[in-house]
Batch of 3 targets.
Target 1
Amino acid sequence: MQADLICVGSELLTGLVENSNTGFLARRLWGAGIPLRESSVVADNEEAIRTALNRGLEMSDLVILTGGLGPTDDDITREAVAAILGLPLVLNRGWLDRMEELFTGRGLKMPDNNRKQAYVIEGAILLENRRGTAPGLIIRWKEKLIILLPGPPYEMQAMFEEAVLPVILNFNKSNPVTVKTLKCIGMGESMLEEKIKALDNRDLPSLSYVARGYEVDLQIKGMGNPGSISQSIENAERILRAELGDYIFGSDEDTLAGLVAELLTGKGLTLALAESCSGGLLSDTITDIPGSSKFYRGGIIAYSRKAKINLLVIKEEMLEREGEVSEATAGAMAEGVRALFGADYGIGITGIAGPESDASQGPVGLVFVAVAYSGGSECKKLQLGGGRRSIKERAAQFALDLLRRKLIGG
Amino acid sequence: MQADLICVGSELLTGLVENSNTGFLARRLWGAGIPLRESSVVADNEEAIRTALNRGLEMSDLVILTGGLGPTDDDITREAVAAILGLPLVLNRGWLDRMEELFTGRGLKMPDNNRKQAYVIEGAILLENRRGTAPGLIIRWKEKLIILLPGPPYEMQAMFEEAVLPVILNFNKSNPVTVKTLKCIGMGESMLEEKIKALDNRDLPSLSYVARGYEVDLQIKGMGNPGSISQSIENAERILRAELGDYIFGSDEDTLAGLVAELLTGKGLTLALAESCSGGLLSDTITDIPGSSKFYRGGIIAYSRKAKINLLVIKEEMLEREGEVSEATAGAMAEGVRALFGADYGIGITGIAGPESDASQGPVGLVFVAVAYSGGSECKKLQLGGGRRSIKERAAQFALDLLRRKLIGG
């Protein structure tokens, strides 16, 4: 079973609106064992939708369309799909009442153009939208499934998780694919592959490797009877965990920051950050986690020499002697910020993100990351490639992993 | 003139690797007056590439393919395009020598599989790659252009800017489209549209509006003789600037953070940030700008009450009385961080990013943003919708705009 994805929206073709739906749906479908065959972005235009929908119906079992379900004149996906399939649009009285109540509840009169959102394709199943006025639609069409979802990611994602995923998993029952992803960090993609190949273990099914900065997703995939497959996947997981140990930090939907958050929260420990070259990215990543205020005390962006001296209480002569980008400075930043916020763990990151480097400090991509804790600290030196953003990202990932290893080690 | 974009890469269809090439190329092509007709992601597989390439050649004047130019076995774009067009691959001796030198220069022997990158489609123009070993290729094919670019964004973007853009602008000479984008902030999309419609000015050509969080891109578009068109666009720009004034913060490739950075650097002023609910996102945005260390002194992520009291020197009784999420606290954060870092401007952001709220503090989405400067401070209250990330993003955008208005006003 495979799927085609069609994102409808002229604004997406200008690149001025970010299209996060493709990535989200690709990941979720992949994880559900229904890989995307092709994904496309087309304009709000019946002809463009027709070509893409016909192609999808010809090649795949499932076609998902996002966008173009809004109330304005250029939202035409529902009308276009109805015309292409030769099905009428019919008023759904219940949805209309629901929308009218929604507006009344806010003390507003429903604008006339919202009425069209209550006209749905005949025979389609309506999907609840807790976050907007457009219903999702599921249409069974000649052994295939066509699913229409709203474009705004906030609405689409909730609808997909709650209403769509159960339906397509059920639809896929006859030919199930099971995927288990082990999330690794600390070893490059090719070294990981070499290590696993060297095992030469016939119990390992086909694996794929996907690198994301410092992380590698290791995917174990099996097709067939769920009972026997899940056993063989469990078996493969056991072999891989025995070999890779701490290089595996989680599985499936886990994130490195989420895992570190869980470890800290579970142990009742707190964290503070001192960032220089990563400029707040690590703090931003951590505070994206709901409930991070439980363990995260706060941070210092020490972007100037003076901030390092005054706030993190780093001795000026040490900075002079060792340099702002050095093991000693990263360690002092981690210890300084730990003391300043009274946290259990402190992280210090200093380096040169580029694109230019004052040669006296070292080359672009040179980064030191330190973790300080009760009774000591640990520091690592990195030489990172890529542009400014990529250097910031890898430095932040590496710091999270260093902290993770401390948390599971002690 | 319009373009089709085909991103080749099975890993992109899993969603586990982010596809930033579509957004980048869509934006750059749109700005160059060559809108994308359709954009698709296909697997590393000749049949999938064939279908997409044939469709692109049928519908568009320009087809760009990214990805699949690497040295490994699954990189087959070059070979597939050659086969589809019926053209042979020929060894480019110069490129081979160049790659060999590159490896020798690093003290390495070139792996055998890199050799295939020197085999190029007959008649194609090679494009320099300063950041990798895959050459880009431009092929003229029956009045159309086919362009092959490497997949890694870091390589692709440099190649596009330096080598591709001049060629396609030249190719498009006979039917040029000119687009000027005015970047607005501080007024919603629909209010902006209403205001401009009310002008009822016949000298205004067709405009389009694209909202991105708090920002709106206002696009003026014209087609035809560049001389007369640029004059009519300049004329429209003058009318819009007269009407919208400070709501316009820049044009075309300008970013709000980049503009604020320019204003600060130009005036020799410095900045410090105190972030609570935005959690470091604003600091991360600012430090993405190369050279930001010239004006950015640093910041405090005051994620705990204690950090606000100890570091930002906010009086505890004031926090008790006014609450951590209040105008008074945002103002005290801005002033505190300004003093702490000895900066000319201080920004304070406090609010409730959700998804849960301790009801005593206020509803999710309530945010206060303050700017402090020599002799005073200014604070704004916001009630933002959307999820946790979107609240963080809008709070950061709003803060940048508040600072911008201060910088251009005084």
Target 2
Amino acid sequence: VDASTPDLWLTECPSAHEKHHFSLKSVLFSGRTKFHQVSIVESHAYGKMLIIDGCVQSSESDEHVYHEALVHPAMVAHPRPNSVLIVGGGEGATLREVLRHPSVQSVVMVDIDSELVEKCHKLLPDWHRGAFDDPRVELVFADGADFIARTRRSFDVAIVDVCDASGVAPAASIYRDSFYVSLRRHLGSNATLAVQAMELSTMSCHDHINVLRGLRSTFVNAVSYATFIPSFWSLWGFVVASDAVDVSHFTPNEIDQILVDRGITLQHYDGGTHMNLFSLPKGIRTALGQ
Amino acid sequence: VDASTPDLWLTECPSAHEKHHFSLKSVLFSGRTKFHQVSIVESHAYGKMLIIDGCVQSSESDEHVYHEALVHPAMVAHPRPNSVLIVGGGEGATLREVLRHPSVQSVVMVDIDSELVEKCHKLLPDWHRGAFDDPRVELVFADGADFIARTRRSFDVAIVDVCDASGVAPAASIYRDSFYVSLRRHLGSNATLAVQAMELSTMSCHDHINVLRGLRSTFVNAVSYATFIPSFWSLWGFVVASDAVDVSHFTPNEIDQILVDRGITLQHYDGGTHMNLFSLPKGIRTALGQ
Amino acid sequence: VDASTPDLWLTECPSAHEKHHFSLKSVLFSGRTKFHQVSIVESHAYGKMLIIDGCVQSSESDEHVYHEALVHPAMVAHPRPNSVLIVGGGEGATLREVLRHPSVQSVVMVDIDSELVEKCHKLLPDWHRGAFDDPRVELVFADGADFIARTRRSFDVAIVDVCDASGVAPAASIYRDSFYVSLRRHLGSNATLAVQAMELSTMSCHDHINVLRGLRSTFVNAVSYATFIPSFWSLWGFVVASDAVDVSHFTPNEIDQILVDRGITLQHYDGGTHMNLFSLPKGIRTALGQ
Amino acid sequence: VDASTPDLWLTECPSAHEKHHFSLKSVLFSGRTKFHQVSIVESHAYGKMLIIDGCVQSSESDEHVYHEALVHPAMVAHPRPNSVLIVGGGEGATLREVLRHPSVQSVVMVDIDSELVEKCHKLLPDWHRGAFDDPRVELVFADGADFIARTRRSFDVAIVDVCDASGVAPAASIYRDSFYVSLRRHLGSNATLAVQAMELSTMSCHDHINVLRGLRSTFVNAVSYATFIPSFWSLWGFVVASDAVDVSHFTPNEIDQILVDRGITLQHYDGGTHMNLFSLPKGIRTALGQ
């Protein structure tokens, strides 16, 4: 036995026919919340990682790639986002990115799993970086669809950052078309909506297409985009929707100017990245029926 | 024991801290050539796969993504490619893509490993699709650097498609700057050169940067580009170099028009994909020092 | 990537919570027969291996441990075995061991899976070593229970060497009590019966106990025994039954004398091994209710 | 992704060509002491497990098999063990078993790794069951060979329970012949010595043979014995040595009577188990040169 061989591993099974293994330095938490099997580990390759129901949710080394790609296209495309809704986003990093935009005055974050948020708050401080303590933030523990059904508030931007829909509850209610229809009633006329929309490749885009279809049938514009996330070992898809604007039409210079105007400097997202996100390869366009 | 669980697996270790596993239907060949440990397998997820020295080289389901991205930007950027050099490319799929361009009158393919080429010819017919039998093709079994040192021929386009440089021989001689200097002497004034240049992500771009630096110090223009390849589970990098042209400056419309003019329709590459390939995300641009 | 890392692996899952991996040099066959998923591989650690429905059946390096332990206690305990029945035993190694006993004049081997026997005959010659060509052997391709229901022959020794009963068909019919009752009608008064009876440890003996119970309710004597098989990574159980004799009561000297008298020298089985086989540790005796 | 698939695994590599994987409920500790890489985990299959330098040391479900087999043959073979030395044995379970013998008045346990003992004391209470608090026990944190070189005490029974010798320090000093010679000077004329002696199978017995040879050249009698340990997935070897007695010659009845006389009832060890331990299969006897 070679004592230097790592003995603790995280296994992710994207399908019955593929497995990913990450070696671990330590396991900070592993257990069930009311809604999910949750592990928070420290890996050698990607630093700390959050795993929900066997899927890597985000990793210290590249969570900014995911969260910047999810949040900023929709935020930048709104001329002056004031009130923002986040559905899911338990780690607090989506919240952190939203709060970078200086026009934001209130954010409601609705997550169903208070135990998960508490674990992330305590064990993943580099994700939220104090965002939960920002006075502009209201944290609500509820099902996102229930919240939307009951609230009277309206929002300029909504970000949906929930687990993969491939499992059933609790995220299933979020990926139904009826949710988008309800949500749209709470969005202003210039509003934009971004939804994390699962893996997007020529090999695997079924779940993504379901999200895209639902948003296309609800909003005037709904556009897919994608970015590669190293610790996911895959190209990750998002959909941004709006009745007012086609986000994919912004030029790199326009994006860069908006970021400058708002005083925002990011690691992953800028005008050039915007081009990359929205210029999908032909094979994927074909798979999406474009 | 669940009899439906796959029992044969391919393991790839991108580092000591990560492993990928692919389940197999069958193993068509596994053994050593004079230069490499070679396995040719049939996987459930990606169809047939060629593995050299433990690394996935190409897979039935997405080899077109790799080979189109490697070949066409350099070919399209030359106004009328007549003579082409391929270094490596044992599967014959790089050759297949080069031969699509109707102006091509001769292709010299130089591969060091005749046993590997023979195995691919026999076991991977969907890769070469008869390209080895094209009368325009001359197949030379030799070290690429030796061939360049001795030949008097010159080429319009050169494509370097050899294994990762991280292992030592035989590919190491190809990734030295001196090789690029030698090769440049055999290229015409409008010539373009494309080199497969390993993984390219914020997490892993050391080998890529070495290729980019060598080409930048040899050619007027050398530009990185990247595409996601599902069976590599990573973003794959290439460098295209030329004294005459900056390939990244072609617009999507220009690319699409050239492909139409040449009568070429592809699965992965077109004007939109060209934008995607050359608009690298900010994190990668930063890592590349741009 | 370290090119010296093995890339082909066999995975065996004894439960949802444990996995064994064996690195492979090559895969000689992998496919489905009418009855089973069969792989024949060459491993680094154990030489050639036969895997049926995801379970290691026997390995070049230690198949003699399994087959000698299965066959010889029952053969030695019969004063002069003349006619022998083998149910299963597709590799031909059980047959090989039976034929060592010089009094044997006829062996009927009944295996349901002719394709499996053919593959073993061709690819595993070190298992059968020509036993199938012995003129004393009659090979019948049939379900063992059906054969017993129809045959008029009787036997001195019967050896049941079929796959684990945990899967359903085809072996399930063999592990029913009714099979033992039928079989007993075809056994002479001095007859002995040996049955491979799955893993036998304090952690895992449920399947073994089922076999033991069935044989105890059918025969005057039925005794469990076990031996460690390296490529199974476990202690393997057998049951030997007889109306005439308690096989566990033979002393080491008696066993050694019988083997000398018959001119048989083995690698694994002798008087000392007999003691080891039949002196089960207390924990296992407790689990078996003794 | 199937959320019910375990995501945390322990990997043990008995060689470059074999791997064992255990799924984990949780990781109680993982880190380095001054001497070892230590993980304490809770597995689904075997309960809590202690892993040192990548090797499973003992598991909740079967540590009694290991510790009873290590301790009791040597203790039973001494007519009235009064003073006992344990070298290693960090978990405290060897100590627990020694203390069962009512004649014992003092036990010195010498372990080099105080951090390891502390972790086991805190996290593995079912191993020691309070043994460290027994007034007969003296715990010394020192190198076993150094302790023996300096002490003036003598012992009736010595138990050596240190990690595999395959790694270098710190256990290497314990497996040298000079250690046995030194130790013998501190043993009474009726004394017995038991040493954990690594895997013992026809496939793997090199390390065991080294221990056996060293003890044979030092003591009048030195005998190998072995037992199967489920969570080790292998047959585990021990050597018991004595100038006064050949422990393998005790009959089952003698062992059972001694245990009754001492009022000791065990889960794994009794007269029948003693027979099993000391009746090695022929293949192993051959490998040991017997």
Target 3
Amino acid sequence: MDATHLVDITAPLQRAEIIAVGSEMLTPVKTDTNSLFITGVLNEIGIEVASKAVVGDRIDDVMVEVQQAIERVDLLVVTGGLGPTDDDVTRDAVARVLGRQLVEDPEIVERIRARFKRRGFEMPEINRRQAMVPVGGTAIDNPNGSAPGLWIEHGHAEARKVVLLLPGPPRELQPMLRTIVAERLAGRTSGARLYRRAINITGRSESHVDEALAPAYARWLAGQPPVSATILAALGQIELHLSVIAPNEASAREILDRAVADVMSVIGADVYSVDGESMEVVLGSLLKQAHLRIAAAESCTGGLLTSRLTDVPGSSAYVERAVIVYSNEAKTELLGVPPAVIDEHGAVSEPVAQAMARGIRERAGVDFGIGITGIAGPDGGTEAKPVGTVAIALAGPGGDDLRVRTFHFVGGRAMIKFQAAQAAMDMVRRTLAQRQHTAGSAEAARTAS
Amino acid sequence: MDATHLVDITAPLQRAEIIAVGSEMLTPVKTDTNSLFITGVLNEIGIEVASKAVVGDRIDDVMVEVQQAIERVDLLVVTGGLGPTDDDVTRDAVARVLGRQLVEDPEIVERIRARFKRRGFEMPEINRRQAMVPVGGTAIDNPNGSAPGLWIEHGHAEARKVVLLLPGPPRELQPMLRTIVAERLAGRTSGARLYRRAINITGRSESHVDEALAPAYARWLAGQPPVSATILAALGQIELHLSVIAPNEASAREILDRAVADVMSVIGADVYSVDGESMEVVLGSLLKQAHLRIAAAESCTGGLLTSRLTDVPGSSAYVERAVIVYSNEAKTELLGVPPAVIDEHGAVSEPVAQAMARGIRERAGVDFGIGITGIAGPDGGTEAKPVGTVAIALAGPGGDDLRVRTFHFVGGRAMIKFQAAQAAMDMVRRTLAQRQHTAGSAEAARTAS
């Protein structure tokens, strides 16, 4: 049979399923992560992953899953269960479902034997199992382990499907998949690929974003090629994932850029990134561009805000110091917050947040100061100021109180901390974006006049 | 129908499948993680997870998966796809497979409306979809979101199966599942349960722990009932998970306590918790018990150490303030680190870490001071001090330099930060544990004499 010939007569592969075999991935502590890598590689060549599954080491369970998958997708990737021991059942399960006999390949036996020999060992007899190949299948070399992969085609002519078996360890699986994609899979796809864009939004609920974008969804779906959208509520933000199957990157970019413009025209400044960048990365870029520095005085966030800011490589350009002030004494000693203000308004109040922001800005000698004070819980809440109440203030050049707001976050302690840090960064981001916009408009006005 | 009666005539639930619905989990960037929590909770009541699946937001795909699952397991847990929008298809898919009509529940509509009102919003009309309940199903209250869960029984008498629909966000799903397990699921199982113990270990590699425990493994497996052990390398620690299937908690506790004692006798002080508690919780308890307070001066960790310390409820008892000092000026101004020490040894050095530790201890007026200075990367490394080099010092009562050490961590920026924070807490933990031990021995000596 001639592989080149097959390419011509076979329908392109479009939909894949990934099955991970291994009982350890059905425990509370381990899950399948190979599928993320596999999905990325398949998406690059235009194959969409339609579903994923994890099954244990019982041959019946593996057979059921393989049987069902082969009915609904063109490409089935099975990972794991190719080792030499009794609980490695993948080869047997697939061979039975496809109705093929397993035959020992003497060449593979020799390769495995040589591999053991190089390390000064005799090959244990059980490793012969790894040399079993279903009739009609092709072994795939594994440069980093003893278990070869297997490539099996199933069905005839236009309905021909591919079943691919790969070992579970990532360092074995990854180079093998790369090779297979280049040498075998890429030639079996339509040429079109899946391209994505992730848009991050703050300050709106999922249903508000959804309602606002409903007319755009309809337009996108009616487009040729259609753009699909998925909306996700994450902690402190809403994510909108756009994807399109396009013949090349340039056309994908054009289509996705147009969809992003649609989103921007409806959601505006609530969009903080159009390519999946995190809040700390977006804010960091804005600060760096404008040559501005920032310092935080954190109470309830306990350092999380500054830790997130400094998760970004190169953040020392705009973060130089910060203070964490849990007690009233620390607020007064390190930031000069007047005890009278704390007495009058309470430690969790807008005037205290403002005094903290002004204090850290001045003492750190930077452009912007942030003050955060709140009740992260689970104790400390009152009727007037329940757990989740957080006051955030931003002081700007000259010590001006630029913004201050009291938030009411829900969730546990860690979630309240995260949302408060997110809201504080968003406050700075909006201020900088506005300044940039204003500066841009002034520039435009000057140019026009 | 009487729920109590059903319990009597129905076979115990033993095998579950978890289906996660959501196209975003079929991308290269996101996967289902709810299944880990769900597996843990189900295992606790003796239900095994036989397989897991992820499907996209296409109703046909969800229907196929639900149909297949319901044929092979007793309990089907479907997560996600219960939102108000068009791509939330779970309710419809399950209702179709089970042949039930969906009917709007006016009480749920009112609950959702009230929830929006509390936040000052009108309920968008699309949220009515979340009030649709399949005939014969029961809505499950969601204290943290608008989407109620659904409990549906399917089939008759001994073959009765349970289909459980839960919203995707973990903070909504987790409390709902806990409630359902207590109120409905626990009464439907055989009574034997899986009990686990997670032991956290620092300062040893996975293979060292594995070798040291090999004799114990064999003993545990030969026991009646046998104890299984899984060893996992996590960031900054090794986790050893022990599990046993036992008829009741008392006997499980006895068996697991014995296994934990085996581990302690081999691994000793490198074990920092025997019930899965995090380092910050363990350290917090030690500090609270001893009425000691701590303050950190953080450079490369950027606030992560103090943020983790303050993730623990009640941490204000032992954390009062901290400083984040990225620049040399900040180290000198806020901590009194002599510029000459920085010049002579470099900012990333043990003498500077020690000066930081002493400085924060004294200025904060607390018992222990921690100084952390290092290179989190990706830039800033040199041949002598590559990325990942972190000096950590601990100053104790009287300003004594108690410990200082230079670590060489691997991984990206966030991983280096995490490991440095972990190592700093472990340094304090070991010091406190030793003091406790010494105090205990002195006490014992006094009592004996």
